[in-house]
Design a protein that fits this description.
With about 110 residues, the protein is an alpha/beta fold. The chain has a single domain, classed as Glutaredoxin. It contains 4 helices and 5 strands; from the N terminus they run E-H-E-H-E-H-E-E-H. It has a 5-stranded mixed beta sheet with strand order 1-3-2-4-5.
Length: about 110
């Protein structure tokens, strides 16, 4: 999972094609660590899914830009553009359903 900060966040995502999941997390957050392990396992079984992570303790500017108040926060980008916030439990079948539903829906406005 590649770490992003405010200096490379937008440029790196704009250059990444396909589906991208961005995890906003913090090292001291147990749920964030669980989501990180889940997403790494999930991406290992789903080729083509790129993963990025933002540490909100180190990059408060991005957390503020996205209005992140609760961790973890999971966002979906598609072909370099913001698509939506993903709401799901960290369980493969539920995440599959949420991801499929999100990809079928029109993109939302970026925060």
């Amino acid at each position: 999972m590649t770490a992003l900060d405010q200096f490379d966040f937008h440029g790196r995502l704009e250059d990444t094609r396909g589906a991208v999941v961005v995890l906003f997390s913090a090292p001291g957050c147990a749920s964030c660590r669980h989501w990180k392990r889940f997403l790494l396992d999930y991406a290992g079984m789903h080729a083509g899914l790129a993963l990025y992570q933002v540490n909100v303790q180190q990059d408060m500017a991005l957390a503020h830009e996205f209005g992140v108040f609760h961790l973890p926060a999971v966002y979906l980008y598609l072909d370099g553009r913001f698509h939506c916030e993903l709401q799901s439990e960290a369980r493969p079948e539920l995440f599959d359903a949420a991801l499929h539903e999100a990809l079928q829906a029109p993109p939302q406005e970026a925060p």
